[in-house]
Amino acid sequence: MSPEKRLRNGSNGRVTIQDVADLAGVSIATVSRVLNSHPDVSIRTRAEVLKHAQQTGYISSKGIEVRSLGRMRLIGLAVPDLREPTVAEIVTAAADAFHELGARFVLCSADQSNGFTSLRERLLPDTVDGALVIFPSEVSGELLAMQQSGYPLVVIEPTVQIDEEIPAVTATNWAGTKAATEHLIGLGHTHIGFITGPRAWRISTERLAGYHAALLAASLPLSSRLVQEAPDRTIAGGREAADRLLSLAHVPTAIVAMNDAMAVGALEIARTRGLGVPHDLSIVGFDDVAMAGITTPALTTVQQPLQGLGRVGADVLWRLLEGQRLDATRIELSTKLIVRESTAPPRGSSFMTV
Fold first, then answer.
1. What residue segments make up the domains of the chain, in order of their start?
2. How far apart are CA 156 and CA 200, in angstroms?
3. Contacts of 115 (CB under 8 A, 6+ apart)
4. Regarding predicted confidence, which is higher, 204 or 52?
5. pLDDT confidence of residue 219
6. Sign for the pseudo-dihedral over CA of 81, 87, 92, 96
7. Domain 173-304 adopts which CATH fold?
8. Burial bucket for residue 287 (CB in 10 Å: 0-12, 13-18, 19+)
9. Is the pTM for the entire model greater than 0.85?
10. What DSSP character marks residue 221?
11. What number is the average pLDDT over the span 172-189?
12. Tens digit of pLDDT for each residue in 276-335?
């Protein structure tokens, strides 16, 4: 006799929640959490409960399709600000990937200024089955607690350092700014400024490290004055930091900006100071969002795989929802230098381009 036949059954002969709990070897409360899509249940336990609930007829096959064994249907996308071009591209790619997988998604705020006290609250845990978290600013402990409670989540470009147990998809930030700085050095620049974001950001640290690595490899000195911190990652932040760089007694002949928006801010300040780009000042950005190709001059930049970050992040999360084991919790996607018209040898240089 199969286990499903050995049921307690209620007085009316129907299968009860106690029957499902007994067969799955869990408590009634756990069965209830699974059937109501609470996140604090492991993938393995969720699958076991749903299997017995379907086999006993406690829920219909149609009902189990909604919560299917690992094939979840509602995903949370936690985003900081959709107005940022980088965020919009990542979200678009992730949404396309989830659509192809037959899943729906809901947008949740990743901005702590909206009054919610925790990321768990913002992700509507009673509603979504897992989450893709983009540029989170939460401390590692909160993310790790959610992950260890059985809530599947994947982080794209964490703003702060996070625990190695938390699955994350990132770009090769260090390699990107190293390539950008090497490009300028190859053109003959030896006095190169860098616009960074707040030093507490992981991305700021990694991209600044790439700039430093290129200078050291070329035996060029490191100068703290040539590194200026922008208050945020906007055009206005780039203007502010570039203005400080161009006010130095020894003005740099080139600037690497942490992103394209900051690079556009540097372009604007150069114009107001009567500097021609690229012959008086070369500028390199990072991201290769749409604005990089339509500035005057068009911006040399590091192409970040934004679409890839969204699609790979969605794929990793889906594998978690299906109960698959991950070979690694860190995936890095390569960057690529895109050379356009905003970089050239410094004025007076004998360097010749081909």
1. 3-59, 74-171+306-333, 173-304
2. 17
3. none
4. 204
5. 98
6. negative
7. Rossmann fold (3.40.50)
8. buried
9. no
10. P
11. 97
12. 999 999 999 999 999 999 999 999 999 999 999 999 999 999 888 877 788 888 999 999
Structure tokens at 326: 């991950």
b/e burial code for range 145-174 (CB count within 10 A of at least 16 → b): ebbeebbbbbbbbbbeebeeebbbbbbbbb
Rg (CA), the chain: 26
User: CB of 156 within 8 A of CB of 134?
Assistant: yes
Average pLDDT, the chain: 84
What fold characterizes domain 74-171+306-333? Rossmann fold (3.40.50)
Distances (CA, A) of 122 to 42, 141, 251: 21, 16, 46
pLDDT at 103: 80
d(CA 69, CA 321) in angstroms, rounded, equals: 9
Tokens of 269: 């300040």
Q: What CATH number belongs to 3-59?
A: 1.10.260.40
What secondary structure letter does DSSP report for 324?
A: P
CA distance 332 to 271: 36
Tell me if residue 262 falls in helix, strand or coil: helix
d(C-alpha 112, C-alpha 287), whole Å? 25
Element containing residue 286 per DSSP (H, E) = strand 282-287
| Size of the chain, expressed as the number of residues it contains | 354
